[in-house]
């Protein structure tokens, strides 16, 4: 185990139990939804056909659930943090998800943002796993789009 990993583990432990912090709003456009459909070969009409999607209970096109999930990377970079820089970071990687729920569809043109709260920190040799409870909110809507437990692994020198 590296001293840097141990120091990061101890520092990150202090974040457990703090209130969730929200990031910036981000608009999910129809163009992004179409590009995601092309990238994933998921061309279901509820995502890419505004006329047919308007005839569904959604009332129009919606983002793919996995697009909303993928946006966590960008959305999380806008969440403010007063946390000090960690020393000796070699890299950070997505380690996985403990839980993901697509609670509410994101309509094309809606604005979303993420909130995050640290719920667990584990020391794994020269790495630290930080589990954060993530919520993706839709502007003006009470019910969130997505809830997930996201594990990020930071590897230290």
Structure, explained:
- With 157 residues, the chain is of the alpha+beta class.
- The protein has one domain: Thiol Ester Dehydrase, Chain A, CATH 3.10.129.10.
- It contains 6 helices and 6 strands, in the order H-E-E-H-H-H-H-H-E-E-E-E.
- It has helices at 3-13, 30-40, 45-48, 50-53, 65-70, 72-77, and strands spanning 21-22, 26-27, 89-102, 111-124, 127-138, 146-156.
- Strands 1, 2, 3, 4, 5 and 6 form a 6-stranded antiparallel β-sheet that branches.
- A hairpin with a 2-residue loop joins strand 4 and strand 5.
- The longest helix is centred in the N-terminal third of the chain and has 11 residues, at 3-13.
- The termini are close together.
- 25% of the residues are buried.
Distance between the termini: 9 Å
Radius of gyration: 18 Å
* CATH uppermost class: Alpha Beta
Order of helices and strands: HEEHHHHHEEEE
Helical stretch tally: 6
Structural class: alpha+beta
Query: What integer is the average pLDDT?
Result: 95
Total E-strand runs: 6
Identify low-pLDDT runs: none
> What is the CATH homology-level superfamily?
Hotdog Thioesterase
Largest pleated sheet: 6 strands, antiparallel
Measured by DSSP, the beta-strand proportion falls in 35-45%
CATH architecture assignment: Roll
């Amino acid at each position: 185990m590296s001293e840097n990993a141990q120091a990061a583990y101890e520092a990150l432990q202090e974040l457990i139990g703090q209130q969730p912090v929200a990031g910036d709003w981000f608009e999910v456009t129809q163009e992004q939804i179409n590009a995601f459909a092309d990238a994933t070969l998921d061309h279901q009409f509820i995502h890419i056909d505004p006329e047919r999607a308007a005839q569904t209970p959604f009332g129009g096109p919606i983002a793919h659930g996995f697009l909303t999930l993928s946006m966590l990377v960008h959305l999380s970079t806008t969440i403010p943090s007063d946390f000090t820089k960690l020393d000796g970071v070699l890299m950070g990687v997505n380690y996985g998800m403990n839980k993901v729920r697509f609670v509410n569809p994101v309509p094309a043109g809606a604005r979303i943002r993420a909130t995050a709260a640290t719920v667990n920190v584990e020391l794994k040799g020269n790495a630290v796993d930080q589990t954060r409870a993530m919520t993706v909110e839709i502007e003006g809507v009470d019910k969130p789009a997505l809830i997930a437990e996201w594990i990020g692994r930071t590897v230290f020198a």
